[in-house]
UniProtKB/TrEMBL annotation:
Protein name (Swiss-Prot/TrEMBL): TetR family transcriptional regulator
Source species: Solihabitans fulvus
Entry keyword Repressor: yes
PANTHER family named in the record: HTH-TYPE TRANSCRIPTIONAL REGULATOR RUTR (PTHR30055), TRANSCRIPTIONAL REGULATORY PROTEIN (PTHR30055:SF151)
Gene3D superfamilies in alphabetical order: Homeodomain-like (1.10.10.60), Tetracycline Repressor, domain 2 (1.10.357.10)
The keyword Transcription regulation is annotated on this UniProt entry: yes
DNA-binding annotation, residue ranges on this chain: 25-44
Domain HTH tetR-type: 2-62
Length: 201
């Protein structure tokens, strides 16, 4: 099979699971594909372009087949499930959140999902500006939460627990709480805030 952009990106995502973002290099990808590194430059000009392409693939895979809400499905339910899909897809890849964070997603990748999300909120009564702010806030929450999940580590004992008991308890709760439940709690807070901003209840 000939070398193409898709095979380069898919190979990079597979290697990401083995070596992590810090260990991922064009040279390593080239070796995996049994080509010399310069051959990759026909498809990705540098590592930044590669990461943009990897982010686009994660995002596209996450929201493949996305459509407007079904009859009877509320904008809250639709938005929540879309956020869950994006988080699940991000977590399927080691350092997936770091790959997505701050990357350029062009309209070919993000245009349709963004249009559907904005249309869903506008149809629910939000202005285009309110919808845009709501959608981007939820996207930022998903990515920020996923980054923290993938960077999670076991912290050493808190030597300041007696001095800052509430902070120590909160820290323990965060370390041992179910990640899905914490994500859902924060997501519902955001959606409740959106609802209040629009409907006042």
């Amino acid at each position: 099979m000939g070398l193409d952009r898709e095979s380069v990106v898919r190979t990079a995502l597979r290697l990401l699971g083995e070596v992590g973002l810090d260990g991922l290099t064009l040279r390593r990808i080239a070796a995996e594909l049994n080509v010399r590194a310069p051959a990759l430059y026909w498809h990705v000009k540098d590592k930044r372009a590669l990461l943009d392409a990897m982010a686009a693939t994660i995002f596209t895979d996450a929201l493949a087949g996305l459509e407007l809400p079904l009859r009877g499905e509320s904008w809250v339910e639709w938005t929540a499930e879309t956020a869950r899909r994006l988080r699940r897809a991000t977590l399927r890849h080691r350092d997936g959140a770091r790959v997505l964070s701050g990357r350029y997603l062009d309209n070919a990748c993000a245009g349709r999902p963004m249009e559907l999300a904005l249309r869903t909120l506008c149809d629910a009564g939000f202005s285009p500006r309110e919808a845009a702010r709501g959608v981007t806030s939820i996207y930022a929450y998903v990515q920020g939460f996923a980054i923290e999940e993938q960077a999670a580590r076991q912290d050493p004992p808190d030597e300041q627990a007696e001095r800052f008991p509430l902070a120590a308890q909160a820290r323990l709760d965060l370390l041992h709480a179910d990640a899905d439940a914490r994500f859902e709690h924060g997501l519902q807070l955001l959606l409740s805030g959106l609802r209040l901003s629009r409907y006042g209840r």
